[in-house]
Amino acid sequence: MDFTSHDIAIIEQALQRAISSEPKDSKVNHYREVLSKLQNNAAAAMSSSSKGTVAHDGLRFDYDDSSDLL
To answer: What DSSP string describes 44-65?
Structure first.
């Protein structure tokens, strides 16, 4: 399942609200752990996708000169 940046922002906001409104420390710790994992994975996904992109201008060059075979 792929999440968009908007989906991740909504999940982060929901976890932050749960952290601020939850009176039990054990649940807060679980929410913080999930929030931390989510933020780390989102940051890693964003940095890896930006490094792997190559700008394509729509032109393709064929360097195979097969005219010498004739």
So the answer is: HHHHHHHHS-----S-------
